[in-house]
Design a protein that fits this description.
The chain has 351 residues and is an alpha/beta fold. Helix content is 39%, strand content 19%. The protein contains twelve helices and twelve strands. A six-stranded parallel β-sheet has the order 2-1-3-4-5-11, sandwiched between helices. The longest helix is centred in the last third of the chain and has 17 residues. It is elongated, with a radius of gyration of 23 Å.
C-alpha cells in the first residue's frame, strides 16, 4: 500500500489554521480575502514541506474539458504595470469561453511547483506561467503534462513551450528612430547602462535587446551613441545622479533613458542645470509607466504592451492545445509582441 495522501487537514494542523484558510491560500485567494501575509507564507511552506497536492478529479471525469485555464505568476498582480497582463488574459479567456484561475507565487519555487501540480490535478485546459518582468528561467517539469505557454520568461534550456515576450529589439530601434526623425545625429547619450550593455542591473535582461536595437538603428545611418551612464538600479535617484555626472563632462543634445523612472531623474537633473526639455535636450525612454504622462513636458516613451502580452499568451495556449503532438513541439518558439511608441512632448529638433 502506498503512502497516505496528504490532506488539507494535515496542512491546517501543522499551521494551526482552518482547512478553509488553507484552501483559500492554496487557490490563490488569500490576499483577496485579507488573510495575512504571514499566514499565507506559513501555509505555502507547510504545503511544500508536506508535498501536499489537491485531490484529483474522479476517474470518470479525466480527459474531459474543464473549460478553465490557469495563470500562474511570480508578482504580476502586485505590479503597477504588469497587472494589465491579467486584464489581457481575462479578455482572451472570455473570448475562448473559459474561466481563468489565477495564482501568485511571489517567486517561491516550491510553492510554484505546488500550484502547478494543483492546477493539473484540477485538469485545467492549459497553464500560462508568467513573470512581471522579462527574465530567464528553468522550465518547471510540471508543465510538461499538458498545454502551457511561458509569458515574459525565456527558457535557459531548449524547450518545446512557446514563449511570449515584448519585442525589445524593435523597441530600441523605435526609440532611436524617434530621435533620428527629429534630426538628432550627434550628442546622443544613454542613461541606465554603458553603450555595450555593461553594468546592467540584475533582472534587466530586456536591456540588452533595447541597446542592440538602438545601436542597430543609429548605426545604419552612421550615428553612434556618444556615451552611456551605467546605473546600479533603475530608479529616479539613479537617473538623476547619472545625468548630473554626464552634464559635468558633456553637453548632450538627446538622452535615451532605458526606463521611465530613470527619465524622471534625468528631467530633475536637467532642470537643476538650467536646461529645458526638449528645448535644450530631447529625452526618449521605455515602458510607458504612469509617470511618463504625468511629467511636464510629457515623456515620449516606448510602451510595454502588457495587455497584449496577456491576451497573446492565452490565444497561443489554445492554438497549442489544438495542435497534434509533433506540431505542438514545433510551436516551441518565441512570439514577440510589438511595443508601440507613445509620442508626447519630450523630443524636438536640436537648436
Amino acid at each position: 500500500m502506498g503512502a497516505r495522501r496528504v490532506t488539507l487537514a494535515d496542512v491546517a494542523k501543522v499551521v494551526g489554521v482552518s482547512q478553509t484558510t488553507v484552501s483559500l491560500v492554496l487557490s490563490g485567494r488569500g490576499r483577496d480575502l485579507r488573510i495575512s501575509e504571514e499566514v499565507q507564507r506559513r501555509v505555502r511552506e507547510a504545503a511544500t514541506e508536506l508535498e501536499y497536492r489537491r485531490n484529483r478529479a474522479p476517474a470518470g471525469q479525466r480527459g474531459a474539458k474543464a473549460h478553465t485555464i490557469a495563470f500562474v505568476s511570480d508578482s504580476v498582480a502586485s505590479s503597477l504595470l504588469a497587472g494589465h497582463m491579467i486584464k489581457g488574459a481575462l479578455g482572451a479567456a472570455r473570448r475562448h469561453g473559459v474561466t481563468l484561475l489565477f495564482a501568485e507565487t511571489e517567486g517561491n519555487a516550491g510553492f510554484q511547483r505546488t500550484v502547478i501540480e494543483t492546477m493539473r490535478d484540477h485538469h485545467v485546459d492549459g497553464i500560462v506561467l508568467a513573470s512581471a518582468r522579462t527574465r530567464t528561467t528553468s522550465v518547471p517539469a510540471e508543465l510538461a503534462a499538458g498545454p502551457a505557454v511561458l509569458l515574459n520568461l525565456v527558457p535557459r534550456e531548449p524547450s518545446p513551450l512557446a514563449s511570449v515576450l515584448p519585442d525589445e529589439f524593435q523597441a530600441g530601434r523605435a526609440a532611436a528612430r524617434v530621435l533620428l526623425d527629429a534630426d538628432h545625429g550627434e550628442g546622443i547619450h544613454l542613461i541606465g547602462a554603458g553603450p555595450s550593455g555593461e553594468d546592467v542591473p540584475p533582472g534587466r535582461a530586456a536591456a540588452f535587446d533595447r541597446l542592440t536595437g538602438i545601436r542597430r538603428e543609429l548605426g545604419e545611418v552612421g550615428v553612434e551613441v556618444e556615451s552611456g551612464q551605467p546605473c546600479r538600479w533603475w530608479l529616479p535617484e539613479h537617473g538623476f545622479e547619472a545625468t548630473r555626472a554626464l552634464l559635468g563632462k558633456a553637453r548632450p543634445r538627446a538622452l535615451i533613458c532605458l526606463d521611465d523612472r530613470l527619465a524622471l531623474g534625468a528631467y530633475q537633473a536637467l532642470q537643476d542645470a538650467g536646461l529645458t526639455v526638449p528645448g535644450d535636450v530631447s529625452v526618449v525612454s521605455f515602458d510607458d509607466h504612469p509617470i511618463a504622462s504625468w511629467l511636464r513636458p510629457g515623456l515620449t516613451t516606448v510602451a510595454l504592451p502588457h495587455h497584449d502580452l496577456g491576451a497573446r499568451a492565452v490565444d497561443l495556449l489554445f492554438t497549442d492545445a489544438d495542435e497534434p503532438g509533433p506540431d505542438r513541439v514545433r510551436r516551441g518558439r518565441t512570439h514577440r509582441v510589438p511595443m508601440p511608441v507613445r509620442h508626447r512632448d519630450s523630443v524636438a529638433p536640436p537648436r
